[in-house]
Design goal:
alpha+beta, 27% strand, single chain, 7 helices
Amino acid sequence: MLQQIVTQVIDLSKQVGAFIKQERSTFNSDQIEYKGLNDMVSYVDKTAEEKIVAGLEKILPEAGFITEEKTKNKIGERYNWIIDPLDGTTNFIHGLPVFSVSIALKEYDELVAGVVYEINLDECFYAWKGAPAYLNGKEIKVSNCPTISNSLIATGFPYYDFEKQPQYIELFTYLMKNCHGLRRLGSAAVDLAYTACGRFDAYYEYNLNAWDCAAGIVIVRQAGGQVVNFKGGDEVLDTRELLATNGKMTGEMLTAVQQFFS
């Protein structure tokens, strides 16, 4: 059942991705709205979400929705979709080609399927419970990098809640001095997908929402990686703290994170 659902979600993600890419060619800054400080949205996000919701209602009619743009208010008893129609909105608005469609399925309290479609490279990452993770039909696995000193690490910068900014900068400085490099792409879904396929060895961020990371969490875990909060627990959607690694680096990364985030 999950495999069939994911196959349909992949098709839907690509259809919506094509719409987003087309709109990018004519998009201008007059079409931006602000939900909060540096928290932007446009008609593209909203229309894309409406298209996704309409498609998912056909795939699993009984499911509810947890969506970024709140175009649908319905909570399902057993199944709920967690949707970010355009993860990387700031990149999209500025014409930076790193943005994605992110769709996850939660059964009761467990994430059981995830699809991340990186639009500009036409790369679709997906996984479901009990199966490997895939990129465009080929199985993917996390990297074998054993230590921070040999790693490439992704992160995200705080852009509206700066309460923990000092700790973040201290951790950033520590990792900058001790790894091969740090990258900030601007799409948590893509960061997680790239961790799942071994392009990144680890990824960390705080102040994430469920729709930013739910699909990517499934993909990393099914690719053999680990996703935990900053205390090392498995619950990340509600804690808004996320550390994803290839598994081999989890202990060392947690030690580093916990030096600054207690």
